[in-house]
């Protein structure tokens, strides 16, 4: 930490991309970090990480996820295109419903994870990770060209706001006459937000999120409206802004994958316990990217399996080595932290199938010492969705 | 110890906090009660008369007494940057350590930071009360929440470390 480094850090901040909510983060004294090339808040002044985390489990947290990449695919081959690059059976996806899915390469490795929402018959709203932006765009383009698909691919800019927590629904309900009781987990709708959005445009609201709590993701293409909308929510007693730190501990407690940690191009959906994303029709047809490899894994049942571990002592961290009871190295931790909800350490790793069973004892090397851990079922903290 | 204290372990690499000067208030829990001086009437001071107090660039402090016994802790600045402390570990004692060698770690929910010995010597005790209740670290990092006690081999090593004034200007320059 010398001054030269620090000065460079300042210019870094200036050169980073900013979301429409950037000034809101500064107003709330967000501690800004470089995340996937964006200046994003990791914490806010006056709330520790644990306080932020617990607030979302008990009240409602507002997350700026505008850095994520929002796509709209339309055109005659949009369905075929998405059924080529993901294993999801879109015939089963009704209009205005969503599914978690994965983009696959030809080896069945995961290029990124994504949420696909069908809007019209041939229109899909797809959200992918900010950290994979360039790679995904290149991948999508080359796949469309390779297969000669006739699709229209648009990127949606502006604000993307996640509102998460048991009070999220009551907070959002104050802004709309639409009855949110009729909008269930995994579904979405274009909703009018009183006078908050320019031209009184309806905005896309999907019920779900990445904390395990009930909540919504609201896409507001007009940046100025996104700011007004976020500020209105933040004026409510029950809503606080929440940064990346709590976002990560919340998703980990919910047993969800983070690209670059649990998911990589070397991991297939079967190992990641995302076999449920493979549509029944696709299992029979086997035409999606990497189907040969993925379906082989599905039948052979030989791949490692993503597993949850609990432990006490120092928290396991990404990269810590994992050993079986005989002292043989069997893998490494993909994510780990102290769980503010459970008040014990939770982590994820990939284990051989004979060990990937509830109750198995394994050992994690942390700071040169092997510490015992126990396999548990995922998620670590039960989900609280509005179904 | 601070080099990992602010990390956010996505993509394994650790982004730096970029606007820590703008938001230096983030690091202070109360109204600028900010002090990197040893807390009065606490063991690291009371143990003897006029201890030598020094600081490292890794944000450890050491209070060294005339009988060569010294207390080691992390600075207020570092404890505030770490946030809610969830876990403290000190290596098993007694053990010989070199200056700059890890003697334990402090953790928050999302980060783990090694604590390095400012000097060469024999680690002879750890602060059991702190280890049992890690949250104490944020309450009095410069006093009751010392981490370890060490018997110093070469008191001259202290001279290469910073005194309080130098440490504060080091913090200023770092931003």
From TrEMBL, chain A:
Substrate binds at residue 217. It is an enzyme of class 2 (transferase). Residues 313-381 form the Aminomethyltransferase C-terminal domain. GO terms for molecular function: aminomethyltransferase activity; transaminase activity. It holds the Pfam family GCV_T_C. Residues 21-280 form the GCVT N-terminal domain. It is found in: Mitochondrion. InterPro entries: GcvT, GcvT/YgfZ/DmdA, GcvT/YgfZ_C, GcvT_C, GCVT_N, TrmE/GcvT-like. Its EC number is 2.1.2.10. Keywords: Aminotransferase, Mitochondrion, Transferase, Transit peptide. GO terms for biological process: glycine catabolic process. Belongs to the GcvT family. The glycine cleavage system is composed of four proteins: P, T, L and H. The glycine cleavage system catalyzes the degradation of glycine. This is Aminomethyltransferase. It comes from Starmerella bacillaris (Yeast). The lineage of its organism: Eukaryota, Fungi, Dikarya, Ascomycota, Saccharomycotina.
From TrEMBL, chain B:
PANTHER family: GLYCINE CLEAVAGE SYSTEM H PROTEIN (PTHR11715), GLYCINE CLEAVAGE SYSTEM H PROTEIN-RELATED (PTHR11715:SF3). Pfam families: GCV_H. Its main location: mitochondrion. GO terms for cellular component: glycine cleavage complex; mitochondrion. Keywords: Lipoyl, Mitochondrion, Transit peptide. Its cofactor is (R)-lipoate. This is Glycine cleavage system H protein. The H protein shuttles the methylamine group of glycine from the P protein to the T protein. Belongs to the GcvH family.
